[in-house]
Amino acid sequence: MRRDFLPFTRPSIDESDIAAVGDVMRSGWITNGPANSEFEKSVADLTGCRFAVALSSATAAMHILLKVLGIGPGDEVITPSMTWVSIANMIELVGAKPVFVEVDRDTLLVRPDAIRAAITEKTKLIVPVHFAGAPADLDSIRAVAGNIPVVEDAAHALGTFYKGEHIGRRNASIFSFHAIKNITCGEGGMFVTDDADLADRVRRWKFHGIGMDAFDRQNRGRSPQAEVISPGFKYNLTDMQAALGLNQFRRWKKINARRRELAMLYREKLRDIPEISPLGDPDYDFVHAWHLFVVRVTSPKIGRDAFMNELKARNIGTGLHFRCAHLQKFYREKYAFAPGVLPDTEYNSDHICSLPLFPGMTDGDVDDVVAAIREVLA
Ligand SMILES: *Cc1c(COP(=O)(O)O)cnc(C)c1O
Questions:
Q1: pLDDT, tens digit, for every residue of 176-233?
Q2: Ligand 1 neighbours (beta carbon < 6 A)
Q3: How far apart are CA 42 and CA 240, in angstroms?
Q4: 65 and 151 in contact (C-beta within 8 Å)?
Q5: Active site (annotated) includes residue 334
Q6: From ligand 1's centre to the CA of 177, what distance in Å?
Q7: In what order do the strands lie in the sheet with 293-297?
Q8: H or E stretch including 47?
Q9: I need a surface site. Which of 34, 160, 359, 366 has the fewest CB within 10 A?
Q10: Best of 43, 53, 59 for a ligand 1 pocket test (most atoms within 8 Å of beta carbon)
């Protein structure tokens, strides 16, 4: 058995990251400043978008976006249930209704036909998720969405390409730089769009509704007398966080390449273990960001939860991405959902488990995980 614990993930922080944050701390300007602007520009360039707005989290970005789009009571937002609960929570908190739709049983990507079936005259927004780093089928989603806005949950999709284009090119998109994401600020998010007005409004809402922050005032000649245009939040990113994100961003290709190598090793080594079934690939042209390596545990002898415990007892950490949203207490009770409404989502919610995947892992770590899995299933 492994002597030390292998966590399911660990951020890849190197000395240059620590130095970059230290430089900001020594500069005397620690909140929204030059690292924010540079980080925004880097992500805008990668996505091919004209505008990027750095925010304190992807959840904050979604909150602002719903407000900016005027979504509230009486409105519906379509989103898969197989995702992190933050999107549904924000929809609830602005008074709108999340309409949960089914995902493909094998890829966990939202199904365009399910979106089509869920559209009503109340639908104000569609939020597909690029699950685990594979892209949702954006062409088909656009075809069913018609004129309804689509905003992509790209929390897993830094380095994801759909038909040759980086995610963010087709619709406004939200990235996350939470500690477990491919690149991290500790906490952080980024909203990208080609719509100047939308970008402006998100920027204003992230800082008290004033439309500019202290750095803008000092460096872009805006007046400290600037006034509130509409009430806003306080969802800006500090420059300490932005410097970390920016420095990590400079090596995203290397980070994702190592994630891919590890994922390919897992696929190869798990091939002859029939009780462990990795997610499938979508059938269109894409590049995977390998944010997560998700498998389904289908053994008749051991359930997923016990499987995770047994791996932990063998010093192997795992994650659960995700427990479906619609059957969690609040949603289940509020909307009277009974098991069976979204069978493919629920099947996966009960059987999935994320194996350790982070760039600092060695090939030997993958061997340890696979050996422990074989032992648990034996
Ligand atoms: C992490 C995550 C979010 C939220 O990101 P934060 O930056 O933590 O707010 C949203 N959606 C998905 C699918 C995520 O994995």
A1: 999 999 999 999 999 999 999 999 999 999 999 886 655 565 665 556 777 888 899 9
A2: 57-59, 83-84, 86-87, 129, 153, 155-156, 176, 178, 189
A3: 16
A4: yes
A5: no
A6: 8
A7: 276-278, 293-297, 352-355
A8: helix 34-47
A9: 34
A10: 59
Q: How far apart, in whole angstroms, are the C-alpha atoms of residue 375 and residue 378?
A: 5
> Whose CA is closest to 115, among 105, 107, 103?
103
Structure token pair of residue 62 = 């979604």
Q: Probe ligand 1: pick from 82, 100, 131, 153, max atoms within 8 Å of CB?
A: 153
Catalytic residue among 124, 181, 206, 269: 181
Lowest mean pLDDT among 104-108, 217-221, 232-236: 217-221
Q: Using an 8 Å Cβ cutoff, are 238 and 213 in contact?
A: no
The tens digit of pLDDT for each residue in 123-158 reads: 999 999 999 999 999 999 999 999 999 999 999 999
199 in Cβ contact with 173 (< 8 Å): no
Q: 173-176 and 152-153 as β-strands: parallel, antiparallel, unpaired?
A: parallel
